[in-house]
Design a protein that fits this description.
The chain is of the alpha/beta class and about 325 residues long. About 35% of the residues lie in helices and about 25% in strands. Bound molecules: coenzyme A (COA).
Length: about 325
């Protein structure tokens, strides 16, 4: 069995936060942010919105466009590093919201590579003949993980969700290279809760318990890692698939930074026009960025059956993944 994309959907919170707004709360400027990153705006959730509800909204659009019955979904995978709860998982919350009563549901955490890992998990299940219809979602509320006093991180990220329905099919193309390097885990971090139980001898002060950690990043390390790693994985995947780069219609990369995408394009000697971008509007939405971009392209009828497309994600862990699909 092979796998194909059937539909996409996305949801972005309505609240727009532009660079000028940020320059009023931290020492930054529209000029600095846009010239270093390409980001001009991002969307941020307001009260009542969350990772699961955005995921469900994106999923509902994908289901409607696919014209399928939610009861036909066998598996729901949600890639997120910002779930609303430790329990239940986000995928179960989505299941309840959309009525996908027959689905197996779980979350997958791989930072900005999450959607690519989830896509590969879906492919493995479909290839093995275990499931036929899979709903894959990337959904993030990164605004709650940011230190809004830290100008080096708060300007980069945004909230949002993207979804795709993939199904088993007879013929298709799917080649991947995935990787992880835990030794470089400190490049992007955000700690969870302190261990507080009767066996922990170290007294933890109330202020320790209450102080939450936020996203910390070694920006230049991450930049160098991506530019060094991703072009090679793209070349290898194209070779593995027996294709040439001339046959690649689009390189849909994780929307972290315009300069990163330009460097990758330059290394591959490919025109930047083949690298669609929307990070100027939405910032870095981590696991949601690739499915949001695919959905925006899909709505503009830019994706045609038979198009060969590279999808590539990279981020904390460190993790990375590049996949060649045929639309
Ligand atoms: N506004 C103004 N100045 C800022 C700033 C901001 N928002 N953020 C950092 N600066 C300052 C720094 O304090 C530093 O000042 P100093 O020279 O006085 O110490 C200066 O700008 C340069 O900082 P540096 O971190 O070296 O900048 P950079 O050119 O590496 O750009 C990033 C920073 C974050 C834009 C860049 O490293 C990057 O894009 N990295 C990849 C990050 C990423 O995409 N992560 C997610 C991957 S999934």
């Amino acid at each position: 069995m092979e796998m194909r994309f059937v539909s996409t959907g996305s949801y972005l919170p309505e609240q727009v936060v532009d660079n000028d707004f940020l320059s009023r709360i931290v020492d930054t400027s529209d000029e600095w942010i846009s010239s270093r990153t390409g980001i001009r705006q991002r969307r941020v959730v307001t009260a009542g919105e969350g990772t699961a509800c955005m995921a469900a909204k994106a999923a509902t659009k994908a289901i409607t466009r696919a014209g399928i019955d939610p009861q036909d979904i066998d598996l729901i995978l949600v890639a997120t590093m910002s779930p609303d709860n430790y329990l239940p998982n986000t995928a179960c919350e989505v299941q309840a919201e959309i009525g996908a009563v027959n689905a197996v549901c779980y979350d997958l955490s791989a930072a900005c590579t999450g959607f690519i890992y989830a896509l590969n998990t879906a492919y493995a299940f479909i290839k093995a003949g275990i499931y036929k219809t899979v709903l894959i979602i990337g959904s993030e509320v990164l605004s709650k993980m940011l230190d809004w006093n830290d100008r080096s991180t708060c300007v980069l990220f945004g909230d949002g969700a993207g979804a795709a329905i993939v199904q088993a099919t007879d013929i298709g193309l799917f080649e991947s290279i995935l990787g992880s390097d835990g030794k470089r885990k400190d490049a992007l971090t955000c700690a969870s809760r302190y261990i507080v139980n009767p066996l922990v001898s170290k007294a933890i002060s109330l202020s320790d318990k209450e102080s939450l950690d936020y996203v910390r990043m070694e920006g230049q390390e991450v930049f160098k890692f991506v530019v060094k790693t991703i072009p090679g994985t793209i070349q290898q995947v194209i070779e593995k698939a027996g294709c040439t780069k001339e046959e690649i219609r689009y390189y849909v990369l994780h929307q972290a930074n315009q300069r990163i995408l330009e460097s990758v394009a330059k290394k591959l000697k490919e025109p930047i026009e083949k690298f669609p971008m929307n990070l100027d509007k939405y910032g870095n939405t981590s696991s949601a960025s690739i499915p949001i971009l695919l959905d925006k392209m899909n709505k503009k009828n830019k994706l045609n059956r038979g198009d060969k497309i590279i999808l590539s994600g990279f981020g904390g862990g460190l993790t990375w993944g590049t996949t060649l699909i045929e639309w």
